[in-house]
Design brief:
By secondary structure, the chain is an all-alpha fold. The chain contains three helices and no strands. 85% of the residues lie in helices and 0% in strands.
């Protein structure tokens, strides 16, 4: 009978140790996930900011960006308020065609 008590005691201690090890492992994985998520979010934000700044710099460096903006605003105003000025300088499609040439 004492032999069985000793075997059960050993298994109780072994299972308790396994439980503690699994709990510690779970905590380590959770902390790693939190830090990993934070790191990835910061890197994604930096990459997005860098790409946006690069694209905006390229767009604003174009020579006819002011004309494109003016034509787009006029086009939207025409949609809202009707035909205001139909001169070719306010025609967005002609400006796009000029840019492609």
């Amino acid at each position: 009978m004492e032999k069985f008590k000793l075997i059960f005691a050993f298994w109780e201690v072994a299972l308790a140790a396994v439980t503690v090890v699994l709990a510690v492992f779970t905590i380590v994985v959770a902390v790693g996930a939190i830090f990993g998520y934070t790191f990835l979010r910061q890197k994604a934000e930096e990459a997005a900011r860098t790409t946006a700044e690069k694209k905006m710099t390229e767009f604003l460096a174009e020579s006819n960006v002011r004309d494109i903006i003016r034509a787009h605003v006029a086009e939207q105003a025409n949609l809202l308020y009707g035909e205001m000025d139909a001169s070719p300088t306010h025609d967005l499609t002609s400006l796009k065609e000029k840019k492609d040439d």
